[in-house]
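Input/output pair, single chain:
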Amino acid sequence: MSIPKQPRQLMINIMYLVLTALLALNVSAEIFNAFKLVNSSLQDSNKTLDDANQNLIPSIEKRAKAKPEFARFVERAPQVVAIGDEFAKYVNDLVNDLIDKSGNKNGSVDDGDYIIKGEKKDLKGKKDKDVTTRNMVNGGRGLELKNKILEVRQKFLAMVDDSLRAGMESKIVLNVDDETWTHSTKKSWEEFTFKQMPLGACMPIFTKFINDAKASENAILNHYSQKLGGEDVVLDKFTVISSPKKSYIIKGEPFETEISLAASTSKSSNTKVSLSVNGSPLGVNDEGVAVWKASGTEVGVRKYSAVASVTNPVTGKTDTYKKDFEFEVGERSANVSAKKMNVFYIGVDNPVGISAAGVPSAQLKVDASGAGIKLAKSGAGDYVVTVAQQGEATITLSGGGLTPTSFKFRAKRIPTPIPQLSGKTGGAIPNGTFKAQQGIIPVLEGFDFDAKCAIGGFRLVRIAPRQDPEFATAQGGRFSGEVEKLILKAKPGDRFIFEEIKARCPGDQAGRELNEMSFKIQ
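Output:
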């Protein structure tokens, strides 16, 4: 590639190089932020699994007292957790060693979201590829880690009875994937996993191994728990729910709702549940549901308090849960809402929802006027509106005792589309990609309706270095004839400008002019 003699062209070339470098830096930062986000999420998951595993141990000990034949589970449960903790310490020590060896190589600073030796710190060597390759691949630490994973997996499986071990193998997720790397060009699992991988990209990999160990712990402890007969507490999370037939009623109508206890665990027929509203007890059916009714004699918000009491069939303890609810009593009203936007667009179907509280649908009357509006019913409470011209359209509801109520909408043209080539409106584009395009695509960005605009024509200008500009015009949006010949001349360094682009959208009486596009061929 020759160096341009003109100072202006030389300056432009230098600017492109700088922008390309900045773009590469931005992408790199975003990728490392993604790695950091994944790593942080896995660390949070590990904390949750630790808490769950610690809570399972006393539950196993308590229920094993009633089933001495399962006393072995009480002995094994702490050992299972110890195996996982020992593996987590091994991985954390390995990670800390890599962090120490990476030092402050590139001096970069992030926002301190990495947990390093128990504290939030900046991982300044996150871009260091040498430390992972040198230690994990060439130094043998990767093979050591692989063997450690397989060793710990066997320790976990040894905590399961021989007769049940085959069914638990898939639940012990800590393992080494020896299948994937054998289909690659890599020579080993450790080379496939760590070679030329930046330390920051390896952090979530190490945390994932710890997560697999914690999840394997949890699977075994839950296996013990299931063999001992599940939780003592039949229901462990509760809330009172109200299921009204209507949350908004018309004056004079009755209000009716179902009050019940919602729980996250399975239902037990031995669990006793009692329900009341505003201090009055309710009859509870076989499904644990009661019905409460109130009159809607006054307009406004009505509040009520529901109380549920549940007795644990094992411990005999009774817990009480209370929650406040409300419903509203109102007069008859009507509403018309555009389902996609607050305007009607010319040339497309505009779906609207029409409702009138307290008015029977058979008695509701719907009228429309202005902007050439036409209204067609498409379902219960659903209509399709079409408009023919810009301006104001009005929909009026009446009938069934409803005072005529009008709703006004603006009628507008479909927004002007944005011309695109290969999903871009301009800028740098590879030569092969540019030549592969078949035409200009008019895109209606952010437009929720099913509408398509068509390109009516355009003019193409080719500006090649040290050559006179070349021109070609086209009817329609596809590349053919002189336009296609001009595009096939494209070479790196050329600039192509699409100007005088015209398009017509549904409802348009005449074409509209679109923005120009300018592409630099790479």
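The radius of gyration is 35 Å. Confidence is low (pLDDT under 50) at residues 19-27, 105-109, 230-236, 264-269.
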